[in-house]
Amino acid sequence: MALLMVNGQCPKPLDPVFLHYLIHGCCIESVTKAIMAEWHPAFTTRLSAFLDAGPAGDITPFISDIVEYAEVDVRSLRDRDPATHRGVAALILYKGLLGNESPQHTDTQSFLRGLRLPCANGFDFTKAVRLYVGGSNTFVNEVWAAYIMAYSSIAPQLDIRTASTVPQEQRTLRADGRDYALGDLVRTFLQGTGIPCEARLDDAKATFSDAIDLSQAGEPFFRPRMFHLAITGSETVWIVGDTDSQYYCSNAIRQHCIDEGRISWRTCFREAAIPASYFHRLAELSYGPDTAAAGMPGSLGAAIQNWLLLEILGSIGGHTFL
Questions:
Q1: Burial group, residue 164, by CB count within 10 angstroms (0-12, 13-18, 19+)
Q2: Spatial distance between the Cα atoms of 189 and 150, rounded to a whole number of angstroms
Q3: Within 10 Å of residue 151's Cβ, how many Cβ atoms?
Q4: Which residues contact 145 (CB under 8 A, 6 or more apart)?
Q5: Backbone angles phi, psi at 218, to 5 degrees
Q6: pLDDT tens digits for 235-278?
């Protein structure tokens, strides 16, 4: 987890408040109302309402919370004092956020030791985070901001270029009634959602990594996240001519790969190379209701999106960290 964050990667599904708690040595006092409100607003609002009710107030609306988290007999709280009232709130906060185990639990301590990444001089990752400009909450916010929620999450870092080896007549393509630069077709794909061609996906998904959750394909984050995994965070996508050295492939199979529209992933250089000629190869095919009825793409736009999606999903797990 610490190595992910050192490299600017969000350690989802770890809860950010739990991470904050660990960074501060399992100190529950470090979990302030402001931090809770930022990450768990509904829970914070409800806990605040309980506190505001006070020791003499009606806590009937909170019976389910008390039973589930504080695990005390509600009848014993009828004549509670201020300290008891605050104590019940602390139990709801702790168990609602962290569960039943104490900070000394073996699993918690083992996880914390790994998170610290201790150095020989006694310095460690958690100390560095606490010294971060703006504090640990600022650090956690910035790490979580790197989490890909949609195309806009990767757009500022994504550099899509058309190489000089692409012939001038191949640099644009008319698809579904309008003209596109090839780079714009890639951007349109990354902004899209869904499965362009279910039948083609079904044929290919046996080769996909088990880590890919296709049930999320309709979400705006799915394509950008899968692209990010395939390219391991690259900032550069090249659209290249067939003879371009950026298209890295063995000479023995190079032309076959280009003819099949294979994307060349150079993860060590954080680059991908897409053969421009394959956009035009797809444009030479016929599309319409008949091809859609046969389980094939019904338009050139759908064919391009289907091709890019299958290339990305098929590469994950083959050369990336999954």
A1: exposed
A2: 12
A3: 19
A4: none
A5: -85, -5
A6: 688 999 999 998 988 899 999 999 999 999 886 666 889 999 99
